[in-house]
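Kindly draft a polypeptide, keeping tokens residue-aligned:

***
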Amino acid sequence: MLALKKIKEILLTVAGDFIVLIGGWYLFYYLRFEYGITGEVPGSDPPMLFIPAVIIAIYWVVIFMIFGLYRKIYLISRFDEIMRVAKITIIGTLILFFLLFIDTLGWTDENLAQAKTVTFVYWLVVFGVVSLNRLVIRTIQKWRAIKGKGLHQAVIVGTGPTAASVYENLERQPTLGMNVLGFVSSNGQAEQPDQPVEVLGEVSQLGRIIREKEVEDVIVALENDDSDILINILDQIDLPDVSVKILPDFHQMISGLNQTNQIFGLPLIEVMPDPMPTWEKFVKRVMDIALAIVILLVALPVLLLLFLLIPLESKGAPIYKQRRVGRYGKDFNIYKLRTMYQDAEKHSGPTWAGEDDPRITRLGYWLRKLRLDELPQLFNVLKGEMSLVGPRPERPYFVEQFKKEIPLYGRRLRVKPGITGWAQVKWKYDASLEDVKEKTKYDLFYVENMSLRMDMKILINTLHTVFSGKGQ
């Protein structure tokens, strides 16, 4: 339901952008030729404009998607949004300029100056019509919020004076778009604050409350004495489509270690589970697909040979599939070359593979050393279930166990799992719960700092591991 509501908000903005961009193309044409602003005179009757207008509108919508102009579009500052539109339309216009006028080396200074004028006028038109559309949509959203319509459901974690103050500020400013459903007790005591909304439950019930009440915003407003339970709270609210804001203490604000935002006059730390910009995610996905195809084509002879050799050493299919937990806890089947004897866990149940594991075949030992057993997972990458780089996916049995034993373990499920990851190049193979705890630290570091630069670093380290035979 939350995802559907978010999709409707995005589609409304996309539709508005698409319509004004088509209109902007007509406006640009008449400014350029009919009114002669750029100094040009058409040599013939105006061409059919609709088809090129649609094509250019599609181009801009794609650019806006790549650069994240359709993220966080609910009641954001209109000034901030116009600044975002300005930056992204400049980038998009420059791309068009170099695509259309790539042969300018042979041009005269006069022709080049005219091309620059045309480009500048076009940017002004695009910036103007898109900004106007965003202003209209955000103004309508704020007007509806004042009327109590289209509000995001919110809860406040905490029942002390700080939580009460947050509630009062939200109630005074409906344009913030939040409808506070109630409070969540942070200390196990369901005391009722002096406010008209009730205490919905305790922190241990927060995940259930979010799902049942379709909560979209969680504001953590703890007293100083309760700050030690923050990790438990973050474990409970680590869910998709839920915005989390935390009131920092004095030391956090002055240390500069956290970026704070001003919302209803209070400094808030917004928990950002997805630090990678939209354009980087787009490039990451393109890289995943391109590299997966290239590696599969190059490795095809090796794979065909292994398909023949694996059954010769131990009966059974050369590839096996196993249920793993993917992004946001969604299960999927992972594919691997079989490195163990068939039905290796039939009697023992799910267990870790250790050094000198008797279940591993002789060929399987070398497949693990060279990481070749992971090659079939490239099909998972092509299907979009995995990425080349990310936290390794675990089996549901172990995920449930680790969530109970390791604080914030669930946060690693916010990104797609990967064939390789920061933990794999920095830590040894899992052999105990302590190993998992150490690797989780590396995984969480990756989740909070993921970038294309970091992905490239991990891929290079992985290649070194493969060619040096240091895998396990």
Summary: Residues 278-468 form one domain.
